[in-house]
Each structure stands twice: as structure tokens, then as C-alpha cells.
């Protein structure tokens, strides 16, 4: 990888900030207008996946379900033409045990060949609500814990910069899910938390270098130092993102339908996270007025970091 | 410079060998097996020989037979034989003793020398091995209502014994109201009740209707009652799962009112659901009046005192006495069969001492009169009302049989009138396993069919292999010799991760496999950091040896910082997540820890071996 080692990253930081703001705005608007395509994990409802021995037309399946009283069911192929996925909203008149049984019986009657029940997911409305709350709390606590850790290790301005980058990444990833109307379920939430961990990883590597350079180099401005630091770390940042994207692509292509949305969230997150560790985190710290004096105080820290 | 002491190499070597050893069981796959246990006793050597004898007599080919922790495990060469053996053994064994339980299982085919070291394959989650996961909630309102009903009966009989005259005992808003004719009698009652029922709180209330003592649970007693309901339900669920014959079930309390039930490998989930959530029980009552009274009561809606209107299976009305002769919880044994006279399915009931006494007394006094068997089942549905989710209970009570008492009945007798042999079998099972103290509802279900489970494993493994290979190739091309060293570390990291997951017997799920893949991608990060640092040091004009030294040294702090933050995210994920998500958090955390070790210590050891203590003019990086 040939890199010009003196790219002026911080030069167009205002433009980058503008782009970030625009992306955030688009994401927020889409989240408000289109909403997220939230899966049954968070809304409650049932998903039934069945496999046929040969490819199957969806229309007859829909008709059969409609005549059995499940006209509201969403019927689609899943992965291949032999697999069918049926989604049902929570119902008033039947509990889950009866619901999936009766749907499966309807499908069996409609089909000439045997069908294989591959998956039944049912989440009661109450549990859906709890998962939603817990999920939100998990993201919140992760952000707070990271804020605290980075504050302890660095300085509060860096920590705010890191968290700004994380929020940026999470919101934009959610925004993409909202625009493309990809399903948001528990595994995507897990991916989102992994994105937080990953994006932070990148940010910290940059910050670490910024701190080191602030201590080492005396006669340069903050902008120059941050620029140098990013230049020094850029090849590592891109390398790691690249290998991570390689494995994510493998997951996305070969891991199966269930894992695909999880991999998708991570792919978006890694791409956005790489960008944000360069622009958002540093720019925010710079904007908050981070300077050499803020980092010089603990002399012994320097000695500490010299030890392997 | 760049020389490691011997002990570090020994440590690395030991860990590598241990890693390989404990990861090895995952290579051997699984045998289809049948697991035989006894509901009461631990199975011993004698029974093992019995099973062996049966297998030979039935002419079933088996691979091996061994004694496990209280069960006999028989392995077979293929699934066909396994299924045949299971059904044949079940018939033969249950003929000897109905309390044998026969379950299908997939037993790890780990060789003995490995199991001797306690090396086991990874524990696969339900999404990989197939099976059902239920989250069941105890209806605490119903539990309290039932408890109050019991107390109400106790209060009545106690007041009668103490010769205190009361008018009525009624349940009002999770409390009991005892009505007395005047306040003097009420005060006497209050003193007596306070003496006897210590777990309750008492207050008094006077209205124009009379003088009341209001009896309600104390906070502590309420909590105690809820705990008891949960505990008893868990033990009933365990009995029922045993009856179903499931190998390695998980039945665990979650929170204050929920129970997690995981049944690996269960194929017929519909039946599992029915049996677990079923509240079916029986009651025996005497019949009140005759056909004329029954139709009259149905038409006018006026039910005579001391009677209650029921319906038979065909919908015809019938009046039964309010007083119950025997209830389901006095039944200690039940077996289904076919009635020899009518040829219809029947259930033979065995009562406990108290139930048998009462049954024989009542039947002795009522020979020639009809007695009814009532089948009771609670059904639940969730319904949204004014934006709130409410659960509505509907109790289905139907009279399945009315027969004239010909003889005094005692401990054992049988009943007929069930719809099918299947209903008879399920009823017998439920009566045997005991009743739920309070009804339960399934609030979450995750079922994965066996074919999807296997497919998930295949896809997961494929994505790990491909992702891993891509990273290896890329690293070797980009960092040359150093890249190859990093690849060694990456491989060791994968082995150590699998070994640790196997040793901890942590549950591996599909997201868990994703965690492994992700860790492979991220584990190179540490090496990339180090190698980039080394390249930088070289560019700054440092000697190769010094570059290696300071490269490792300077990168360390960064690597630690970066990994700790990811670990924080993983730990939070673990504490908030459920099932599969926790699997992801576990593999991610383990991967972070092992990768720190292999990427720093592991690669350094090899690099030192290659370049250490030598004159080096150029590094292949």
C-alpha cells in the first residue's frame, strides 16, 4: 500500500464535519420518517420458517393462509425458492402454541409434499417490550462505560471526541438500516455494540498517537500534531479495517440469512467507524480546544508507557 | 536484545500443546445415542446388563454401551438404528418398570484418552443443534388467588372448630373478607384468627352489611407464596420434561416469575408445548338432582344452592355438587390404557392416603348414585386492551364421564370418557408429573429444526474457514515473513479460543461463530499495530534490532487500551443480552484475551527466534 505520508487530513475538516452533519441529518430524518424495520424481537409476533422439498410459489401459500384467517401474514422466500418465511403480528385471539401449530397445519394441507419446520420464533408483546428496553439500556451503558474509561486514560476532551464518534457511527448505521428498510433484530443490536467496540478501537489508536506526539513534539500547533498522528496511524487503520471487512464479507456471503443482517450492520459500522476515527473523533477534540498543556501534566505516565 | 528467556518458550509450548489437546475433541463429531434413565433411582451396573441383554435379544446393532452419571448410554452406528432401538427399548423397558425414561441423544464421539483428560467438545447452543427454547411466565395473580382459596377453606373449618359463628368468607381484591353477624362475634373471631394464621395481616371494617375481618397477606408472606409457586412449578416442569424423554434439558429460574426451558433435539415441539403449559387436572364430584333440574337450571340460569352448572363433552348441561370429593393433587399415580369392557381409552388412577380415605367414605355412603369426573384446563391468551397487554384466563371445565357408583372405591380405580388414546396418555402423564401450582404461559419461543441447526453449523464453519484463509493470504502478502509469523499467531489464537470454549463448556451459538470470525479479523490488529510501528522505526533510520524492540514496546500501550474498550462493550453485551447474543459476547471476550497473548507474546517469541542475537541488515517486513 503506497501512501503519501503527508496528507493534510485536518485541512478539509470543516468539509468533513459538514458531510458528517449531513449524513447524521439524513439518518435522523429517515429514522423519524421511515422508522426502523423492527423485527419481532422488539415488537412481539411470530416468525415461522419452513422448507419445502422443491421450489414453491408464494401465491398459493398466501391464499391458503388467508383462507385460514391469516391474511395479515407476510409471506416471502428466505434464502432460496424452497424456503418460505411467514411473519405474523401478535394476535388477540390465539396464543402462540395454537398459532404456529395451526399455521404449520395449514401449510401442510396446502402442500403436496412434506414440509420441514425449520424455525419458529415467537416473542410475546411483553417480552418484546423488555428486549427493546434492555437493548436501549445496553447501548447507553456501553457508551457511558467507555466515556468513563477513556476519561480515565486520556482527558475528557478526547473522551467526548470518542463518544461523539461512537454516536455518529451508531446513528448512521441505524440510518442506513432505516433507509434500506433492513430488519433490525437482536443480532443487529449485538452488531451495533460490536461496532461501538470496534470504532472505539480505531479512535483510541489515533488518540494514543496524538498524546504521544503532543508530549514529544514541542513546536507545532495542535492541528499539525493531529495531522501527523493520523498520517502515522492511517495505514494501520486501513489495514485493520480491511482485514475485518474481509472476514465480514465472508460472514455476509457464506454465513446464511440469519447472520447476513448482523454482518451487514458490522460492515456499515466498520466503514463509517474508520472514517469517524479519522475525522469525527479528532475534529471534536480539536474543536473542544485540546492542547499540549492538557496532556503534559503526569510526567510519570510517560515513564509508564515506555515499559512494554 | 530481542532474546526471550527459556521459560517464555516453555510457557508458549505448554499452552500450545494444551490448546491443541483441548480443542481436539471438536474434531470427532457425534454418535447417535439413546440415553436410559430411571425417574427415581440412579441406574447401575445391573441395569446396564439388563439393557445389554435386551439389545441382544431384540437383535439391535449397537456400537457401545456405557454407564454415565446415573444413566445408561448406548451408541449406534446410524440414526435409523438409533430410532428403532429407542422405540423397541422403550416398549421392553417400560414393560418391566414404567418409570424408565428413554431419550434420544447425540453423544460426543470423543476418544477415551481425551475424555479421561476432561477434554470435551464445545457445547452447542440450540440454534446449532436444533431444539426448543421457551420462556414461561407464572401467572402470579392466579397463584395468589389459589392460595387465598385454600386459606379460605382453612379459615372456615377453623372457625367452625372454634365454634365461632361467621356468615361468609369471600375473596375481594387479593384479600379475604370474613363477615360476622355482629361486632362482638367479630372480635372473638379476630382474636382467634390472629392466633392461628400468623402469616396474615388483619383489619376490621363495619358496614351496614355486617362486621368484617379483612385478611390479607403480609409483604413477606406474599413474596413467600410467589416463591413457592415458582419453585413448585419448576419441579413440576422437571417431572414433565422427564416424562417427555429429553436428554440434557435445561430448566432454570429467570427473575422472579419466569422459567427458561430448553429442550435440545426435540422434534415434536407442538407436543412439548402442550405438555409443558398444560394445566389439565381432574376433579371428582357427586351429581346433583336429575335431568329435569339440569335443563331447568340451564334455561332459567338459576342454579340451586350447593350446586354448580357444568357441561358434558357433547354440550349437555349437568348439575354437580359444589363440594369436591377428590382433586387432582391427591392423585399420585396414573397410567393410560384401554378399557377391557368398552375398548375405549382409560386412565387408571392411584390416590394418596387422604384422597383414598375420602373417596372410600363418599362412595360407601353414595352407592347407586352417579358420580362425575370433571376435566379442568386453563387456557390463556394475551390481548391488548386500552394500549395495555392483558392476559385473559379462560377455564375450560367439562364433565368427561358420569357413572353410577356400584361399589365402594378406594385407592385405585379407573376412569373412561376420554376422546382419544392420546388424550388419555397425556392426561396420565400430567397427573403423574403433578399439577402446576399456578398456570404458566409461554411468553417467548425459539424453535430451531434439526435441519436448520446442521445448516447453521455448516455455514458458520464455512464462513470461519473462508474469512480465516483470506486474512492469512493477505497478511503473508503484505508483511512477508512477519506476516507468516502473524499467521502462526492467528492460528494459535483460533486453537486457543476453541480450546477455552470447550474447557469452559460455554454455549456456542451462531452469533458466537460470528464472534469467532470477527475476532479473527480484529486479532490481526495487534500485529498490524506492531508491524507498522517496526516499519516506521526503520524509516526513522533505526537498526532492525532496535526497530523490533521499540516497535513491540511502543505498540503495547495502544493495543491494551484498544482491547480493553472492546472488552467493556463485550461485557455489557453479555450482561444485557440473552441466549445467542451472550454467545457472541463470550466468544468476543475470549478472542480478545487470547489474541492479546498470541499477537504479542506469541509473535515476539518467533521473531526473536528468527532475528534475535544476530547481525541483521534487513527485515522481511
What features would you describe in this structure?
The complex is a heterodimer of chains A (308) and B (621). Chain A is α+β, with helices and mostly antiparallel strands. Chain A is built from twelve helices and six strands. Chain A has helices spanning 13-33, 40-43, 58-67, 96-110, 125-153, 156-180, 186-216, 222-254, 257-278, 280-287, 292-296, 299-306, and strands spanning 37-38, 45-52, 74-78, 80-88, 115-123, 183-184. In chain A, the strands form two sheets. A four-stranded antiparallel beta sheet of chain A has the order 3-4-2-5. Chain B is α+β, with helices and mostly antiparallel strands. Chain B has four domains: 6-24 and 449-611, Multidrug efflux transporter AcrB transmembrane fold, CATH 1.20.1640.10; 31-109, Alpha-Beta Plaits (2-Layer Sandwich), CATH 3.30.70.1510; 141-221, Gyrase A, domain 2 (2-Layer Sandwich); 278-447, Gyrase A, domain 2 (2-Layer Sandwich). In chain B, the strands form six sheets. In chain B, strands 13-15-14-19-18 form a five-stranded mixed barrel. In chain B, strand 11 and strand 12 form a beta hairpin. In chain B, helix 1 (6-23) packs antiparallel against helix 13, helix 8 (219-244) crosses helix 12 (421-433) and helix 14 runs parallel beside helix 16. Chain B is elongated and about 110 Å long. Chain B starts with 5 loop residues before the first helix and ends in a 10-residue tail after the last helix. The interface between A and B is large, with 82 and 81 residues. Strand 5 of chain A pairs antiparallel with strand 21 (440-448) of chain B, so a sheet runs across the interface.
Amino acid at each position: 500500500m503506497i501512501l503519501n505520508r503527508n496528507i493534510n487530513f485536518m485541512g478539509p475538516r470543516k468539509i468533513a464535519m459538514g458531510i458528517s452533519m449531513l449524513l447524521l441529518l439524513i439518518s435522523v430524518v429517515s429514522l423519524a420518517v421511515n422508522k426502523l424495520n423492527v423485527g419481532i424481537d422488539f415488537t412481539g409476533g411470530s416468525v415461522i420458517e419452513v422448507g419445502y422439498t422443491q421450489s414453491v410459489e408464494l401465491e398459493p401459500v398466501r391464499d391458503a393462509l388467508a383462507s385460514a384467517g391469516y391474511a395479515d401474514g407476510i409471506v416471502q422466500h428466505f434464502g432460496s425458492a424452497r424456503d418460505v418465511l411467514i411473519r405474523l403480528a401478535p394476535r388477540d385471539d390465539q396464543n402462540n402454541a395454537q398459532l404456529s401449530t395451526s399455521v404449520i397445519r395449514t401449510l401442510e394441507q396446502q402442500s403436496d409434499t412434506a414440509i420441514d419446520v425449520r424455525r419458529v420464533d415467537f416473542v410475546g408483546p411483553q417480552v418484546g417490550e423488555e428486549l427493546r428496553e434492555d437493548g436501549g439500556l445496553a447501548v447507553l451503558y456501553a457508551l457511558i462505560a467507555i466515556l468513563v474509561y477513556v476519561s480515565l486514560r486520556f482527558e475528557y476532551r478526547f473522551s467526548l471526541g470518542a463518544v461523539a464518534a461512537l454516536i455518529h457511527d451508531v446513528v448512521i448505521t441505524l440510518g442506513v438500516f432505516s433507509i434500506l428498510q433492513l430488519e433490525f433484530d437482536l443480532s443487529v443490536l449485538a452488531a451495533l455494540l460490536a461496532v461501538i467496540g470496534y470504532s472505539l478501537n480505531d479512535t483510541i489508536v489515533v488518540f494514543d498517537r496524538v498524546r504521544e506526539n503532543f508530549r514529544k513534539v514541542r513546536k507545532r500547533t495542535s492541528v499539525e500534531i493531529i495531522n501527523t498522528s493520523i498520517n502515522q496511524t492511517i495505514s494501520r487503520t486501513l489495514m485493520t479495517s480491511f482485514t475485518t471487512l474481509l472476514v465480514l464479507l465472508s460472514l455476509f456471503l457464506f454465513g446464511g440469512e440469519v447472520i447476513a443482517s448482523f454482518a451487514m450492520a458490522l460492515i456499515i459500522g466498520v466503514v463509517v467507524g474508520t472514517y469517524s476515527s479519522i475525522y469525527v473523533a479528532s475534529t471534536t477534540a480539536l474543536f473542544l480546544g485540546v492542547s499540549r498543556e492538557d496532556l503534559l501534566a503526569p510526567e510519570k505516565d510517560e515513564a509508564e508507557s515506555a515499559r512494554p | 536484545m530481542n532474546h526471550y528467556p527459556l521459560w517464555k518458550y516453555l510457557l508458549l509450548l505448554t499452552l500450545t500443546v494444551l490448546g491443541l489437546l483441548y480443542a481436539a475433541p471438536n474434531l470427532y463429531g457425534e454418535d447417535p445415542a439413546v440415553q436410559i434413565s430411571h425417574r427415581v433411582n440412579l441406574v447401575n451396573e445391573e441395569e446396564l446388563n439388563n439393557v445389554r441383554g435386551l439389545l441382544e435379544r431384540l437383535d439391535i446393532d449397537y456400537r457401545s454401551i456405557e454407564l454415565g452419571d446415573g444413566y445408561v448410554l448406548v451408541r449406534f452406528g446410524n440414526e435409523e438404528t438409533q430410532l428403532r432401538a429407542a422405540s423397541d427399548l422403550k416398549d421392553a423397558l417400560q414393560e418391566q418398570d414404567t418409570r424408565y425414561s428413554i431419550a434420544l441423544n447425540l453423544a460426543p464421539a470423543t476418544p477415551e484418552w481425551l475424555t479421561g483428560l476432561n477434554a470435551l467438545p464445545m457445547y452447542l447452543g440450540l440454534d446449532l443443534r436444533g431444539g426448543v427454547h421457551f420462556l414461561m411466565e407464572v401467572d402470579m395473580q392466579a397463584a395468589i388467588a389459589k392460595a387465598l382459596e385454600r386459606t379460605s377453606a382453612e379459615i372456615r373449618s377453623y372457625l367452625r372448630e372454634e365454634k365461632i359463628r361467621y356468615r361468609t368468607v369471600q375473596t375481594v381484591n387479593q384479600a379475604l373478607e370474613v363477615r360476622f353477624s355482629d361486632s362482638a362475634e367479630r372480635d372473638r373471631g379476630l382474636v382467634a384468627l390472629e392466633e392461628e394464621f400468623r402469616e396474615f395481616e388483619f383489619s376490621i371494617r363495619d358496614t351496614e352489611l355486617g362486621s368484617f375481618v379483612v385478611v390479607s397477606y403480609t409483604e413477606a408472606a406474599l413474596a413467600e407464596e410467589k416463591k413457592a409457586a415458582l419453585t413448585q412449578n419448576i419441579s413440576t416442569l422437571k417431572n414433565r420434561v422427564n416424562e417427555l424423554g429429553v436428554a440434557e434439558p435445561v430448566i432454570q429460574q429467570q427473575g422472579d416469575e419466569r422459567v427458561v426451558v430448553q429442550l435440545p433435539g426435540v422434534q415434536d415441539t407442538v407436543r412439548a408445548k402442550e405438555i409443558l403449559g398444560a394445566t389439565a387436572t381432574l376433579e371428582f364430584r357427586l351429581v346433583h338432582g336429575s335431568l329435569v333440574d339440569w335443563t331447568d337450571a340451564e334455561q332459567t340460569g338459576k342454579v340451586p344452592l350447593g350446586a354448580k352448572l357444568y357441561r358434558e363433552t357433547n354440550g349437555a348441561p349437568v348439575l354437580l355438587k359444589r363440594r369436591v370429593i377428590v382433586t387432582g393433587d391427591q392423585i399420585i399415580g396414573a397410567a393410560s390404557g384401554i378399557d377391557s369392557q368398552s375398548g375405549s381409552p382409560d386412565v387408571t388412577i392411584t390416590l394418596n392416603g387422604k384422597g383414598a380415605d375420602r373417596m372410600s367414605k363418599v362412595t360407601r355412603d353414595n352407592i347407586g348414585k352417579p358420580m362425575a369426573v370433571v376435566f379442568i384446563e386453563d387456557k390463556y391468551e394475551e390481548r391488548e386492551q386500552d394500549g395495555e397487554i392483558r392476559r385473559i384466563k379462560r377455564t375450560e371445565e367439562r364433565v368427561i364421564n358420569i357413572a353410577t357408583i356400584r361399589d365402594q372405591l378406594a385407592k385405585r380405580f379407573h376412569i373412561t370418557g376420554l376422546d382419544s388414546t392420546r388424550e388419555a396418555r397425556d392426561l396420565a402423564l400430567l397427573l403423574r408429573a403433578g399439577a402446576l401450582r399456578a398456570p404458566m404461559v409461554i411468553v417467548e419461543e425459539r424453535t430451531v429444526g434439526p435441519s436448520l441447526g446442521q445448516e447453521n453449523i455448516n455455514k458458520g464453519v464455512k464462513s470461519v474457514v473462508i474469512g480465516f484463509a483470506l486474512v492469512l493470504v493477505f497478511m503473508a502478502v503484505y508483511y512477508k515473513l512477519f506476516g507468516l509469523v502473524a499467521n502462526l499467531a492467528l492460528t494459535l489464537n483460533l486453537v486457543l479460543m476453541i480450546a477455552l470454549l470447550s474447557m469452559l463448556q460455554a454455549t456456542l451459538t451462531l452469533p458466537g461463530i460470528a464472534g469467532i470470525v470477527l475476532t479473527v479479523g480484529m486479532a490481526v490488529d495487534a500485529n498490524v499495530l506492531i508491524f507498522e510501528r517496526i516499519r516506521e522505526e526503520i524509516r526513522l533510520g533505526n537498526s532492525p534490532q532496535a526497530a523490533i524492540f521499540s516497535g513491540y514496546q511502543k505498540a503495547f500501550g495502544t493495543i491494551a487500551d484498544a482491547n480493553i474498550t472492546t472488552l467493556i462493550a463485550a461485557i455489557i453485551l453479555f450482561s444485557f443480552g440473552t441466549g445467542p447474543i451472550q454467545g457472541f459476547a463470550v466468544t468476543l471476550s475470549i478472542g480478545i484475551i487470547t489474541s492479546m497473548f498470541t499477537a504479542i507474546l506469541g509473535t515476539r517469541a518467533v521473531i526473536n527466534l528468527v532475528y534475535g542475537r544476530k547481525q541483521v541488515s534487513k527485515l522481511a517486513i
